[in-house]
Amino acid sequence: MSGSKPQASLYERLGGVYAIATVVDDFIDRVMGDARLNANPKVDEAHHKVPPPGFKYLVTEMVCWAAGGPQRYTGRTMVDSHRDLGITPKEWEAFLDDLRQSFEKFRVPAAEQTELRAIVQSTYDDIVVGKDPGPSLAPSKAPAGGAKGRQRPR
């Protein structure tokens, strides 16, 4: 019998809901103000349809849930919430750049960044039209169904 204890969940390694909410707050501010994303009139309209605090709450809930936390995501599916936005691979890249900037600002460790990017990447087909992930968006190594075998929000 080994004396080693199991590795902490991604949720725990990220510092739990408060730390995740802090990064999400910054990230959503970046996304909602990103001219590269708002150049798409449908995205710009969607960004101005919902109050930022509610959007941040749902994204925090989703990240916590996908990272193994006790929260349960209660928002719409990724397909339903993005279906009519016409998000392109180039806009996806801008979104990932915003995410990278938030990770850097809060010094999210590299291993946790990799796990989070895999979770985000697992939503690509539900969000992006054109389905050309390009060189930096090779298919993720996230387990089928998202983090820890949980069903990702579709």
In short:
This protein has 154 residues and is mainly alpha-helical. It has helices at residues 10-14, 16-33, 35-38, 41-49, 52-66, 78-82, 89-105, 110-121, 124-127.
Throw out a few tags for this protein:
9 helices, mainly alpha, disordered C terminus, 0% strand, 154 residues, Globin-like
Describe what this molecule looks like in 3D.
With 154 residues, the chain is an all-alpha fold. 58% of the residues lie in helices and 0% in strands. Residues 134-154 have low confidence and may be disordered. It has helices at 10-14, 16-33, 35-38, 41-49, 52-66, 78-82, 89-105, 110-121, 124-127. The protein is globular, with a radius of gyration of 15 Å. The protein starts with 9 loop residues before the first helix and ends in a 27-residue tail after the last helix. The longest helix is centred in the first third of the chain and has 18 residues, at 16-33. It contains nine helices and no strands. It has a single domain (10-142), classed as Globins (Globin-like, Orthogonal Bundle).
Q: How many helical elements?
A: 9
The domain tally reads 1
Mind telling me the C-alpha Rg?
Answer: 15 Å
CATH level-four homologous superfamily name: Globins
- Under the CATH scheme, which class? Mainly Alpha
CATH topology: Globin-like
Determine the fraction of residues in helical runs and give it as a percent range. Answer: 55-70%
List the secondary-structure elements in sequence, H or E.
HHHHHHHHH
Helix and strand composition category: mainly alpha
Reported CATH architecture: Orthogonal Bundle
Mean pLDDT across the residues is: 87
* Number of beta-strand segments: 0
Please tell me what the overall shape is: globular
Major β-sheet, in short? none
Low-confidence stretches: 134-154
Tell me the span between the first and last alpha carbons. 40 Å
Which percent range describes the beta-strand content?
Answer: under 5%
